[in-house]
Amino acid sequence: MSSRLRLRQSLRSGAGSVSRQWDGHPKLRRSMVSPQPIQLHWARPSPAKLRLLSLAAIVVVLLFPAARAQSAERPSPNQFLIASDIHFNPMADPSLLADLMAAAPAQWEAILQRSKLTAFSQYGHGTNWWLLQSSLNEMRATLPRPALIMITGDILAHQFPQNFASAMHDQDREHYRSFVLKTITFVALEFRRRFPDTTILITPGNNDEECGDYSVRANGTFLDDTADLARSLAHADDGVGAEWKALGSYNVPHPSLRGIRILSLNTVFFAEWYHADSFREGCAPVASTGPADLLQWLESTLAKAKAAREKVWLMFHIPPGMDGATTTKQYLSQLLRSGSPNNSACAKAMVPMWVPSWTSQFDSLLAKYQDTVIASFAGHTHADDFRLINAAGANKLFVLINPAISPIYGQNPAFRVVTFERDGTLADQSTYYLTNLEKASVTVGGTWEKEYTFSEQWKMRPLDAARLAILYNQIKNDSKTRDQWIKLYNVSSSDLSLPDDIARGLYCAAEALDPTSYQSCYCPAPRTSETAPAPQR
């Protein structure tokens, strides 16, 4: 009998031993789990491997049965939540780190509640416990029983490996690997406690990996460690776990709509900065066919959906096209040195989100399946933004880019509620944000408000590529519309100010996905006196 089969049998037999307490309040009490380790029977496992497998067992025992619990609130069959770029940093209070290392994820909340650092994370920082807790509580208060929840990548804080090494001075890589999995599991548990019967879909972000930024490996350690978690959150079968292990992607039916499928797509593979690293080989770079394999998987999956007359939503972390914020920053840096705006310098400063050849192939693939793919959702930029795919064609597609929970790049923390029709098209969306970040603390509390609703703000409906194309042209040609868009792009943050010339570098990225068209839209770029936004990755 294989060790994996024995693990599954242990999970099934041990599931009934876990007790759960639900109090119906947004601040749900932590689950209670027996401290006795789950017994796994195979020959001489290493202590590090046993720790990880025991943690994996706890993950499924805690999450899978909870998915069957029933909530008293009335379900919202045509609305869902999107949270992106959480960037949770459990090391924000270093005094708690040793206790977190020694504890199971179900015990973390009680430990984090002891923190004497009671202010919410501020601009320029990742998400601490108080901000995470407030965000999750507000999501539940806003939409207690969504049709589903999307988490569009970057659960882990920036510089996670470096911060762990600096704080712990622990060179045991298996200890760090275990801490990564505990962190991901803890965030999943916090979602599950507030949304016990909701399908929760995740996709990898560029920071979600043991070896660091942009380094996730197909069939690698991180995807293997988190496969049961991704499958359990999605209420899915072993096939989803296998797809996640192979490519960090999966394909599931929509939980409330017949004939609609949702594809979670690991677009970190397509990123300009992508490099596969092997955790088992000391995070050394290794060759990878992940990007090509993912594109082939996507085409095959879309072909099957089309043959079955199904429609598809795509969710991923990094959107296609150009990185407007980083491009603007780099070009302005050049101008400050040379003082002479020119098209050549602007072209050299341009930074793609994806390798341009992958963007081109993705664009062509979606044009081929334009009647199958009806909506796409992404994160990564930390801004409230969108992309138009096949913008020059008659049948445009779009990507809705979701603002971040983390305020690290100056935006206010935010999440979305999306309303959809019975045919899977999008009717509307509302963005909710934290209004008092600089004052928020355990004693003051976070004040959340609805920032805007798409149909009310822009006087158009539904939310589709045609309306976003109209909005793009208004942003481009009308200064009042552009100013309002920039305000919402920054999630009403007074911490950021973007002059018109710099705004051009951002809105050009919405439609111009390849370097040539972006250069035509943006270059020559801003005056040397302007200041650029921080790069958003």
Question: DSSP strand (E) fraction?
Answer: 5-15%
Question: Main beta sheet, described?
Answer: 6 strands, mixed
Radius of gyration: 23 Å
**Structural class per helix/strand content?**
alpha/beta
Q: Tell me the number of helical segments per DSSP (H or I, 4 or more residues long).
A: 18
Structural shape: globular
Overall pLDDT level: 86
Point out poorly predicted stretches. 1-45, 64-71
User: How many strand segments?
Assistant: 14
Classify the helix fraction into a percent range: 25-40%
Instruction: Give the distance, in angstroms, between the N- and C-terminal Cα atoms.
Output: 44 Å
Strand arrangement in the largest pleated sheet:
3-2-1-12-13-14
Features:
537 residues, alpha/beta, 6-stranded mixed beta sheet, 18 helices, 14 strands
